[in-house]
Specification:
With 439 residues, this protein is an alpha+beta fold. It is built from 17 helices and twelve strands. Strand 8 (291-294) and strand 9 (299-302) form a beta hairpin. Helix 1 (13-40) packs parallel to helix 7 (161-178). Residues 21-25, 27-52 and 81-85 have low confidence and may be disordered.
Length: 439
């Protein structure tokens, strides 16, 4: 994929608000133009349908991508919900936000490093590569070498990102609401509060460094996983220094022998279950860019821990019980736990509770399957989408998930797509049974 050219990050609150205002104007203008084209073709005028057109979706994605920061991150989060939250055209267009972001130009990189390291920061490095290795929603990564020979990856945060989180989240949520791009039932305020909490953590690189070190200890018994070291003498709240890891994108496994793809799939799926049920600490962003495959050793490097979430004991116990209920085929137990978690309410009609149980059983199909589940050949995502659209949008029977589950859902959905992409076949049922708490 061709990397986008560098572009300055708008830093002021007014400047970022103005960019979103332009996005709103572009959406309205695009809808009007599309409506006129439809009338010219003899079709009925439909502003709502025109507003949700594919060109409008691409316009919004482009605006959010140029803003980067929390605005882009919210677009990523919404896109992962797919057609269950957004119309298909918008889900597809916003999906581009999960790929390579637009990097900031060298002058802004210099400004950030000057503020974080002070005057003469260049003397801290024997070599500094100005071409970024990667660029994401919060920051970009540069390779550097210290005078004593350490080979480092420097994650450099975009200027103004940390202080713009609250405003970006509120403004993007308001934009989506203004054009009715989110279901009325969605708890936008709750989702916004949860997004602000998580994104504020992601923007603190000192906190991420501590989480990285903690995570390294948690997976010390998994020799096939590699977690890079933090270099604290070069880490600040806005710059994180860690070992540079040589490897290949995880997508390289697509051409690997089936046994290797299955082994990596087992490794990542077991890690996800351990995160939830054993560690109660989860890296909740399964973006492909957050992994590297080391073909010579068969190891997988874990690179990004900003989106790491801790879970309370009660939260995990609820998910353990609902998982047991799914595996046992116990619909009554799943209904009880769905209510306890917040997927349904004790006041809901039996019909509404049954609809939620149907969704849970379908989503958990890999856990009910005996033997290896063939992720790349599964059409589960489309079946979940179709059932969700029918039960939620058409029949109004399914509630929006509780805000505190948004990042867990991101990991669950993303992990399925990750295993499908690398072509892995995994016995998910056996793996989760290994780590589920005793009854």
């Amino acid at each position: 994929m061709r990397k986008p050219p560098p572009a300055p990050i708008p830093q002021s609150r007014l400047g970022r608000f103005a960019r979103l205002g332009l996005a709103a104007g572009e959406l309205a203008f695009g809808a009007a133009a599309e409506g006129l084209r439809r009338v010219a073709r003899g079709e009925a005028a439909n502003f709502g349908g025109a507003l949700l057109s594919a060109p409008n979706a691409r316009r919004l994605a482009a605006r959010l991508g140029r803003l980067r920061g929390a605005a882009m991150k919210i677009g990523q989060l919404v896109s992962l919900q797919g057609a269950d939250v957004l119309p298909p055209e918008f889900a597809q267009a916003l999906a581009v936000l999960r790929a390579q972001a637009t990097p900031m130009p060298p002058q802004q990189v210099r400004g950030v490093l000057g503020r974080e390291y002070g005057k003469g920061w260049e003397r801290r490095f024997a070599r500094f590569d100005w071409e970024p290795v990667a660029a994401a929603s919060i920051g970009q990564v540069h390779r550097a070498t210290t005078p004593d020979g350490r080979d480092l990856a420097l994650k450099i945060q975009y200027p103004g990102v940390a202080r713009s989180i609250a405003g970006d989240v509120d403004n993007v949520a308001a934009l989506l609401r203004l054009f009715n791009l989110l279901p009325v039932e969605l708890d936008v305020a709750g989702l916004a509060a949860e997004a602000k909490r998580q994104l504020s953590q992601e923007a603190d690189y000192v906190s991420e460094g501590r989480l990285l070190e903690r995570y390294s200890r948690l997976v010390a018994d998994e020799p096939a996983l590699l977690v890079p070291r933090v270099h604290w003498n070069l880490t600040t709240p806005r710059v994180m220094a860690m070992d540079f890891v040589e490897g290949e994108p995880l997508e390289a496994l697509e051409s690997a022998p089936q046994a290797r793809r299955d082994a990596v799939g087992v490794l990542l799926e077991r890690l996800m279950f351990r995160e939830l049920f054993e560690f109660r600490v989860m890296q909740t962003d399964p973006n492909f860019a957050n992994y590297l495959y080391l073909p010579e050793s068969g190891r997988v490097a874990l690179l990004d821990f900003g989106a790491t979430q801790r879970f309370g004991a009660a939260f995990v116990a609820n998910y353990a019980r609902i998982t047991r209920g799914v595996i046992d085929g116990d619909r009554d137990a799943v209904a009880r736990e769905a209510i306890r978690i917040g997927y349904a309410s004790a006041d809901d009609s039996p019909e509404r509770v049954r609809a939620m149980v149907d969704i849970v059983f379908l989503v958990c199909e890999p856990l009910r399957h005996r033997g290896r589940y063939d992720f790349p050949k599964s059409d589960l995502p489309s079946r979940v989408r179709d059932l969700g659209l029918d039960l939620w949008l058409r029949q109004g029977l399914v509630r929006s998930p509780p805000p505190e589950t948004i990042f867990l859902h991101r990991k669950l959905v993303g992990s399925f797509l990750l295993l499908a992409r690398i072509g892995a076949r995994v016995d998910a049922r056996a793996l989760v049974l290994q780590v589920l708490p005793m009854r």
